[in-house]
Amino acid sequence: DFDPQHYGDDPNPDNTIGLFRRDDKSLLSIYGRFQLNDFYRTDTRYPEIAFDQARGPLFGLPILHEGATSFGFLGDKTSDMRRNTIIDPLLDLPIGDPNEARLLSQLTGYEYELAQRIRAYQAAGDPRAEALKAQLLDTGFTRFHTYQDFSMPMNLGGWSSFVPHAGPGYTRYDSVDGPADNFDRTIMHLGAEASVKFSKDYGNHVNPKWGLDGLLHVLQPYANWSLLSTDDIDETHPRIDRLTFTTRPRPISPNRYTAIDDFQDGNTLRLGTRNRLNTKRDGQSYEWLLIDTYMDTFIEDKQYDSHFSNLYNDIRWQPLPWMGVDFETQFPVFDGGSGFTEFATNLRFQPTENFEFSLGYRNLDNHPVLVDSNRFDLRTYTRLAENWGVGTRHVLELDDRTLELQQYTLHRDLGNWVAGVGITHRDNRLKDEFGIMFSLTLRDLPSASLPFSLDAE
Questions:
Q1: Bridge partners of 320?
Q2: Which of 134, 111, 268, 285 is CA-nearest to residue 215?
Q3: What does the alpha-carbon distance between residue 235 and residue 40 come to, in Å, rounded to a whole number?
């Protein structure tokens, strides 16, 4: 099943080892990714080196610079089980064989889309079928990529802001597996962000029960425009860092766009409004409620059939330290939108100092690629003693009444370190998966706090 928490940045989680050097201005990464088992489709990196520069002033000028540069030896491998039981039998079938639909239905996402295209080319006798078959099974290349963004924030009157963006990029592919040639392309981007703010003070409205100490409403209409121009990659050229099938909107800034191999011409305008209710906590302003409502207009975009996206609503309510609610919805408004609806919510609640749980619910209906879903996600953490705690996670898919995930973890506070061990069982429907996890984490890291997440995903 599609899991938004992990799928957005890692659609095929597997095995990664890396060395990272970080300071206030940059991040240097050297990491590898390996296919240590044959169950998942996995992209491999032997290794990849990346240097990311945080946004900051350029030579003391009012212009800000942000950059990303990487070089790596990349590959993409399907799982042995899927290749032997589904893909090879499917591609060997005679055209029109009644088993074709049955085998296709067992593929999802990228593999499903690519296999459909290959079968259509096979039916037409198109030689591109063999090139795409190489992509589906096992492919790779070396890639150098860089993109540099320049912006100049302007504050107009203290209540509005305008930030123009511009940036060049370049990508080079070498040692490409399969029939595709070496290839390079340039990227040019223009964009602008604009917003205005209005506020209303509701005075000293105090309600300790709901964490209120004064209330200020801030209304912020905004617009974000992005124009991207690049060279098209031939269909037979392999793509590894490609667009994943997700329900979330695509990033507008090229520096936030991780699908390097799927850059395409685009002209997008995002319009939205943020509503914030702020209160005071510990002498500082605190965001009590955020409602972000927005929609994309695709002036030019090859990825979408519609001129408009769904209407998104992202809501975050954190009234108290021991309770928080996240709520996301999207649905079509104009021109069919994105063609599907989604409802997702998560409640985090700590009824006692020794027990905390979160309950998530998600419903996805009529997505063109992802399977419809109606699932619950329950997580708990119980403090057994001063230095001991246990956590659990259960994921239940109601559509086919499958308990997809059971996970149990034990945590031990060692002072400066926190150790954890866990076991997990995942029902993948085709094959059950069992795992055991170990972790050792520095307690003093700002991002480290109990309960720790131990996920086999």
A1: 323
A2: 285
A3: 24
Give me 387's structure tokens: 């230095």
Give one DSSP letter per residue of 290-354, joined into a string: EEEEEEEEEEEETT-SSSB-PEEEEEEEEEETTEEEEEEEEE--STTTTS-EEEEEEEEEEEETT
At 115, is the secondary structure helix, strand, or coil? Answer: helix
Six-digit token pair at 15?
């095995």
Cα 171 from chain centre: 22
pLDDT-based confidence at 255, cuts 50/70/90? confident
CA atoms within 13 Å, Cβ hemisphere of 57: 4
**Helix orientation angle between 109-124 and 128-137, rounded to the nearest 10 degrees:** 160
What is the per-residue pLDDT across 317-334, written as a single tens digit (0 to 9) for each?
999 999 999 999 999 999
Contact partners, residue 203, CB within 8 Å, separation at least 6: 214, 215
Strand 42-57 with 64-77, pairing: antiparallel
Q: What is the DSSP letter of 209?
A: G
Q: Which two tokens stand for residue 75?
A: 């590959």
3-state secondary structure of 141: strand
Sequence-distant (6+) residues with CB within 8 A of 97 are none
**Rounded mean pLDDT, 210-230:** 94
Q: Where are the beta strands (DSSP E) in 210-281?
A: 212-213, 216-230, 266-281
Note the pTM of the prediction, 2 decimals.
0.81
